[in-house]
Write a structure and sequence with these properties.
Number of helices: 4
Largest sheet: 6 strands, antiparallel
CATH class of the largest domain: Mainly Beta
CATH superfamily of the largest domain: Translation factors
Bound molecules: FE2/S2 (inorganic) cluster
Helix content: 10-25%
Low-confidence stretches: none
Distance between the termini: 50 Å
CATH topology of the largest domain: Elongation Factor Tu (Ef-tu), domain 3
Shape: globular
Mean pLDDT: 92
Radius of gyration: 19 Å
Amino acid sequence: MPFKITIDSNKESFPADSDETILEAALKHGHSFPYGCRNGACGSCKGKLIEGRIHYQNEMTGISEQEIKEGYALFCQAIPDSDVIIEAQEIDRVGEIAIRKLPCRVTEIEQLSHDVIRLYLKLPKSERLQFLAGQYIDLLLREGKKRSFSLANAPHNDDCLELHIRHYDGGLFSEYAFHELKESTLLRFEGPLGTFFLREDSERPMIMVAGGTGFAPIKGVIEHALHLGDKRPIHFYWGAR
Ligand code: FES
């Protein structure tokens, strides 16, 4: 039977299974708790345990013994052993998510059409990118140049970042991506960026229009809305050649 996790500040609650972390359960139920590495190292997910029992499965460097004694907890590692009440910060604005520069490795290159490829990018084991559905990243290229690409994956599905790249004749990154880029190549990016994202607390219907690879952020938004069980009507008009 799942345990009940209650956020003290607004008394909202969500269920957590006895084998999932409080962070996993929070994200699954639409609560945007902050996080970074999701493996106990960075401390970004730190909050307070006010009532109830938890245990940790892994060694953690992101919290000190003293902090644990003071009631702090790392929600990315904390597994509930009872109903709990916690103090946690929720992210509801873009500016509350740290913009970071991170390395990533190309794990898969897939040809989607004659002029569009999909890249899957994997972050180092100790890192995860927190973002809102629909945001984008800047790939950092040589000589200080950058190219922006929307994240086509949804935040709940952040094992790899998914980018859709359209070929442009002479395009600085697209020529490279289509003709030279290989799996296992290391890239660097900065993000998340942008204010186009899913307003999770809105009840208004969604009408979205996109052309070509403009499909990418919409894909992330729709997948995330469905994952959250959003019941709003969604209309999506997509133009492609
Ligand atoms: S997200 Fe890094 S310690 Fe929890």
